[in-house]
Specification:
DNA-binding; alpha+beta; 5-stranded mixed beta sheet; 342 residues
DNA sequence: AACTCGGGGGG
DNA sequence: CCCCCAGAGTT
């Protein structure tokens, strides 16, 4: 039995059932899932995906929606550029009127779609023979071919793509792509791979050499930066929170959060109160919550402030139910709410 | 090629 | 704590 036959047989038996893998494949579902899955694990996408599809069941409904509603449905998923890109993409494609493009080249020209997502949508939704190369597939290829440092450079990636394309001979390209990604996610894992379960184990050079975990080599990352912020958590008598739209150019731009700032060296409570658009009597600082944004490790000190009345607010400010804000936000809000209510 | 952008789960 | 994840866009 050939490599690709063994791979596909394994996939038929072992693949997880996921909401975007329903037959027949809906290109729109494939598109949304691929955007959500960029740098985001399957387990975290599944619940958000279902909610998103209920809210925006078709490309047309997505195009008609306000971008803030799309961001709201994306809240907590991270990498919010993806949501803005998806919304722009929907508007462009709907305005064009000819439906979602079916070739990788045309898909790649749309906002938020790069080489990986273009190949994924073209193959999974439209059957095109386009090999994908994501983190999972790169790891499988790097181990099978013992690529070592080569895996980090452009020629190595091209080699991996050729290897995937070779597996597509006489097979459904989309299934091959999906099977390799599934294999990387569930068997050929970064640490402690389950080689005995792998359909490619016999010819895998890294397994034969006994060091699969050394391929590909860990990528170097930017030195973590440790920051200390404070957040002014003003809660009204009705239990709503004072939120502010984060300014352009800042991290979490465009999302709605309690006003926050660098904690600096001064008095935390005083600094927090200074962020509010109206005077208050005082506040109390709570134990910090941890939040990370790419290379930043942030310790956020909540300063809880009780506000009797919901005073009128300037533009860019709002009173909102923190659990169902009805506004785009970050998971940082939920962390602050949990801390403040404990 | 390097840097930025969220966030959480597993070792 | 460190590591990685169905990457793309910008510089």
């Amino acid at each position: 039995m050939s490599k690709s036959r063994r791979l596909l047989a394994w996939y038929r038996d072992a693949a997880r059932e996921l909401p975007w893998r329903v037959e027949p494949r809906d290109p729109y579902r494939v598109l949304v899932s691929e955007l959500m899955l960029q740098q985001t694990q399957v387990d975290r996408v599944v619940p958000r995906f279902d909610a998103f599809m209920v809210r925006f069941p078709t490309l047309a409904t997505l195009a008609e929606a306000d971008v803030s509603k799309v961001l709201e449905a994306w809240s907590g998923l991270g990498y919010y550029r993806r949501a803005r890109s998806l919304h722009r993409l929907a508007r462009e494609v709907v305005a064009r009127g000819s439906g979602l493009p079916q070739t990788a080249a045309e898909l790649c020209a749309l906002p938020g779609i790069g080489p990986y997502t273009a190949a994924a949508v073209a193959s999974l939704a439209f059957g095109a023979a386009e090999p994908v190369l994501d983190g999972n597939v790169m790891r499988v290829a790097a181990r099978f071919l013992t690529m070592g440092e080569e895996a980090r450079r452009a020629p190595g990636r091209a080699k991996a793509l050729r290897w995937v394309r070779g597996l597509m001979e006489g097979a459904e390209p989309g299934r091959v792509n999906e099977a390799l990604m599934e294999l990387g996610a569930t068997v050929c894992t970064p640490r402690a791979p389950a080689c005995p379960l792998c359909p490619l184990r016999e010819e895998c050079r890294a397994r034969v050499e006994g060091r699969p975990e050394e391929h590909p080599p860990a990528r170097r990352v930017r030195e973590p930066e440790h920051l200390r912020w404070l957040a002014a958590c003003a809660v009204s008598g009705r239990g709503r929170w004072l939120l502010r739209r984060v300014e352009a150019g800042a991290v979490l731009r465009g999302l709605w959060l309690p006003p926050f700032a660098d904690a600096g060296d001064g008095d935390v409570v005083a600094t927090a109160l200074g962020l509010l658009p109206f005077p208050v009597d005082g506040g109390v600082s709570l134990p910090p919550v941890r939040h990370s944004i790419t290379y930043r490790r942030i310790s956020v000190v909540p300063v809880r402030v009780a506000v009797a009345r919901e005073l009128p607010l300037p533009d860019g400010w709002a009173w909102a139910d923190p659990l169902v804000p009805g506004l785009p936000t970050s998971s940082l809000l939920a962390k602050l709410v949990r801390r403040a209510n404990k």
